Structure to design on (65 residues):
């Protein structure tokens, strides 16, 4: 993601972030709009921009439950 694309995405997020903070339903609405607006980016990239910080996901595989 280059700097101009990041700035466009941040402007989009700044417009919709207050809506996303109203609850999970609102967050889902913003998330779908973001995915439609920026289809070339991974879910991780979009999520990191939307929440405004770098988030690492760790998946633990402890074997069968």
């Amino acid at each position: 993601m280059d700097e101009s694309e990041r700035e466009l995405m941040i402007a989009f997020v700044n417009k919709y972030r207050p809506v996303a903070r109203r609850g999970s339903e609102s967050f889902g609405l913003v998330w779908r709009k973001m995915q439609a607006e920026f289809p070339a980016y991974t879910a991780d990239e979009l999520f990191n921009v939307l929440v405004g910080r770098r988030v690492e996901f760790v998946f633990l595989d402890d074997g069968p439950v």
